[in-house]
Specification:
The protein has 28 helices and 34 strands. The strands form 6 sheets. It has an 8-stranded mixed sheet with strand order 3-4-2-1-7-10-11-9. The chain starts with a strand and ends with a strand.
Length: 849
């Protein structure tokens, strides 16, 4: 069990270590606890080495930190503690001229681990008398590697061959041993360190040497995530990861685990589990050979800052035999490990992680001086790598295309596609990396092919205080009996709740900085829904003249000025009829004004712009970017300004819509920024329409879209903008999805090998979203709602298509013919997309209070 710097920082942490270690010893097992220095200590010691003038200050900081921990643990200074303090004081003495040498630097850097392990072992021993302290330098011996003395002392590797007698020897002493990460010894007995993150690697080496049953890495995060969760709170826990994927993730910037810690456990087939010190009951991430392969998919977006690029250029290297050998020999001479390589006939560019190898600028300059003897050299600092990590990246490049539009206005220094087909990496300016990661994650990690077998809860879900969120049950749970009665005489039916519809509309009306809400009726055109929303003051957004006419017929009293018409590739007569009807018309194509400009002379119009990249839960619902047909692209800016002026139209509003199912509030803030940047060209603009796409949780345990965050960001932007504008939203699915359910009776069941099928009376003829988008809908047996689920089944419909699947691998109670199944969140894009395919009538539509 390895515990990192934040996991050994106070008494509560050490109490947790004791509890977790003793859960194994209570079952007769033996535990080796490997600990890091208290957080911040190694950084302070590294600072003293880099600047000897600060050594006294660093010494005071380190001794003070451990004195505080000793006091928290209720320990008196022991001989070993005092000996370590005296040793560190001597090493950091300003008169110690050897502080600049690698052997002394290694001793200094390893002192934090020695001090924390000593305090921890004494505390655990005082608790239960079951713990012994162990010096890691007696267990790990550094391998003899060619290279500089600096590398051999400050970035050592160790032999991790299984030692059959070691486990038994330790067991004879105590059930729990506490030792240090990060440090080892060389053949001469000198202290060496394993480089940054070396405590993980130490634990892996020791697990391999002992033939451990498992290795647990305890840290301050719940596990490996689909992105850095401190940057992206919606990042999802990776529950099961293969050794290869974990190696790639850790190498590409997932700092929760050091890359060198993977291979020792992989070679000895030891499962590695990342555990969360703050919540020990959390499942964490398991890395093993048993992790399931869900095929080609992006599992994570990783980034790593502090990258330095070395570009070597010269026409003489073309067809020059041995150039790379000569150049790489110089990197080896100075102790540099190369990460990424990109080559052409006259250029070779490589990346270095300076922090990883504890190498300073002076050593880098020595390398550059030597390289300049064989080529021209350019050093590019302050870079970062952004990597898409997952299986079979090469096979899904066509699916990644739209997401890669986020790089359109960014300088890319290097692109690398791993030969093992596990990552696609871009090196960019460091200042752009975090934003790129956020944009890529939004587009590529909406859920994942493997569902919950691969992806666990989000960072937000894992950290929220459940005691503060009792959670309201879905409306249909409280109206179960009424729904079952409604199904008398029906095989399948959509049911919409007026109360749930009104509640969703009311949430949007309460937003302080959104001036107007239009319901995007393409989500559900039921007349009663239109009347309910217009009665609450919402406008209606239509995408065809047939929808406009449907609204006018369903709500005869509506003011046409409350209808927003946003056609796309519609024929000319639809625009003409819209203008004649007095509705607000949106133009999203240069062609419309170029060819039919006279229709718009003297008219008020809105322009739909393309902000450059789309978002959403599936590529088919992303409505911006080069691969989407919607919106006026940025490249047409000058032309559209000229056209509007030439025909005499008045642009009173600017509009954009990036996609559907977006759960990140900042997405609309970026859209607002893009739209307002055009206002100076259209000074009569009064309205800025941010579109819709407000996401709805797919599962009841997921967090809803943070409307307060969205509202607050809009208010902050508008308040600082300096123009008097109204902000509009035009949601569809957000207003109606959760208010609707699809009910269908069970018809048949079937078993085929290990797979069970549960048939219901309607399928893709009523609900196309799962087939078209791969959309996820929760499915329940409403007739047996309170029975324990015992069977995993694929829920399918009666349509003669293999794709007629409503839900895969659903855990349900044993279901019988005639039971009523409920498919949740189907109020949007359900009945409106239904068909009579196979001449089967789609589900009826019912509305209840």
């Amino acid at each position: 069990m390895k515990f990192g710097g934040t996991s050994v920082a106070d008494r509560d942490c050490w109490d947790t270590i004791g509890v977790q270690a003793r859960r194994f010893t209570s079952e007769g097992q033996r535990v080796l606890v490997v600990v890091s220095a208290v957080r911040g200590v190694t950084d302070a010691l590294q600072g003293a080495i880099a600047d000897p003038g600060s050594a006294a200050q660093a010494l005071e900081q380190v001794l003070s930190r451990y004195a505080k921990l000793r006091q928290e643990l209720g320990l008196d200074p022991s001989p070993r503690q005092l000996e370590l303090e005296q040793e560190l004081s001597a090493l950091l003495d300003t008169e110690n001229s050897d502080l600049g040498t690698p052997p002394v630097q290694a001793r200094v850097l390893g002192m934090g681990e020695l001090m924390s392990s000593t305090l921890g072992a004494e505390y655990l021993q005082a608790q239960a008398g079951d713990t012994a302290w162990l010096d890691a330098r007696d267990l790990l011996v550094a391998e003899n590697r060619p290279g500089t003395a600096r590398a051999s002392y400050l970035s050592a590797t160790c032999d991790c061959t299984l030692d059959p007698g070691l486990s038994g020897n330790l067991a004879d002493v105590a059930p729990i041993h506490v030792t240090q990460g990060f440090i080892a010894r060389n053949a001469d007995g000198d202290t060496v360190v394993l480089g940054r993150g070396g405590s993980d690697t130490s634990a892996a080496y020791l697990a391999a040497r002992l033939g451990a049953q498992r290795l647990e890495i305890w840290t301050d995060v719940p596990g490996m995530f689909s992105a850095n969760p401190r940057l992206i709170p919606g990042a999802r826990l990776l529950r099961h990861v293969s050794y290869r994927e974990a190696q790639e993730l850790s190498s590409m910037g997932a700092r929760v685990l050091h890359p060198r810690s993977i291979s020792p456990v992989r070679d000895h087939d030891i499962p590695l589990v990342i555990r969360w010190t703050g919540r020990p009951e959390s499942e964490g991430s398991e890395i093993s050979h048993m992790a399931r392969d869900f095929g080609a998919q992006v599992k994570a977006v990783a980034h790593r800052s502090g990258i330095t690029l070395i570009a070597m250029e010269g026409i003489a290297m073309w067809h020059q035999v041995g150039f790379l050998a000569d150049a790489f020999a110089l990197f080896k001479k100075h102790g540099f490990s190369i990460d990424l390589v990109s080559t052409s006939e006259a250029n070779v560019t490589v990346s270095l992680d300076m922090a990883e190898h504890l190498i300073d600028e002076q050593v880098l300059q020595h390398l550059v001086d030597d390289l300049q003897a064989i080529c021209q050299v350019k050093v590019i600092h302050n870079c970062a790598s952004v990597s898409l990590v997952g299986m079979g990246i090469r096979t899904i490049l066509h699916r990644l295309g739209p997401a890669l539009e986020v790089f359109e206005h960014r300088h890319i220094y290097l692109v690398s596609q791993a030969s093992n087909d596990l990552n696609l990496t871009f090196v960019v300016d460091e200042r752009h990396a975090e934003k790129l990661v956020m944009q890529l994650h939004q587009q590529l990690i909406p859920g994942g092919v493997g569902g919950d077998s691969v992806f666990g809860d989000t960072w937000e879900q894992l950290h929220r205080d459940h005691s503060l969120e009792p959670g309201m049950p879905a409306w249909w749970r409280t109206q179960r009996d009424e729904l079952l009665e409604l199904m008398e005489g029906h095989q399948a039916a959509y049911v919409y709740s007026r109360a749930a519809l009104a509640a969703a509309a009311d949430r949007l009306r309460r937003m302080q900085h959104v001036n107007r809400v239009f319901y995007s009726m393409k989500a559900n055109s039921h007349p009663e829904i239109l009347r309910l929303f217009t009665g609450m003051g919402l406008g209606i957004e239509c995408v065809s003249m047939s929808e406009v006419e449907h609204v006018l017929a369903s709500v005869p009293e509506i003011d046409p000025g409350n209808i927003l018409f946003t056609p796309n590739f519609a024929p000319r007569d639809e625009y003409q009829r819209g203008l004649e009807a007095g509705v607000m018309v949106t133009v999203d194509n240069l062609f419309v004004l170029e060819q039919w400009g006279e229709d718009f002379a003297g008219r008020d119009i809105l322009l739909r712009l393309d902000p450059g990249s789309g978002l959403g839960h599936h590529k088919l619902v992303r409505t911006a970017g080069t691969h989407s047909k919607f919106g006026i692209p940025p490249a047409d800016h000058d032309a559209i300004v000229q056209l509007v002026g030439d025909i005499g139209a008045r642009v009173i509003g600017l509009h954009a819509h990036v996609g559907s199912g977006v759960m990140a509030p900042d997405a609309w803030h970026r859209t607002l920024s893009v739209l307002t940047s055009w206002i100076e060209d259209f000074p009569e603009t009064r309205y800025v329409d941010l579109g819709g796409g407000l996401g709805v949780p797919d599962r009841q345990d997921q967090l809803p879209l943070d409307l307060a965050h969205l509202d607050r960001g809009i208010g902050e932007f508008v308040g600082s903008f300096g123009h008097d504008i109204e902000v509009w939203l035009e949601p569809g699915r957000y207003l109606v999805a959760e208010a609707g359910v699809l009910l269908a009776r069970v018809t048949q069941s079937k078993g085929k090998g290990d797979v069970r099928y549960l048939g219901v009376a309607t399928g893709m003829n009523s609900l196309l979203r799962p087939t078209l988008y791969g959309a996820y809908h929760e499915i329940f047996n409403l007739s047996r709602l309170h029975e324990q689920p015992t069977q995993v089944s694929n829920v399918v419909g009666p349509i003669c298509e293999t794709g007629d699947v409503l839900g895969l691998d659903r855990l349900l109670p044993a279901s019988q013919e005639g039971d009523v199944m409920l498919i949740a969140n189907t109020g949007a894009y359900g009945a409106v997309m239904a068909s009579r395919y196979n001449l089967r009538e789609p589900a009826a539509e019912l509305v209840i209070d």
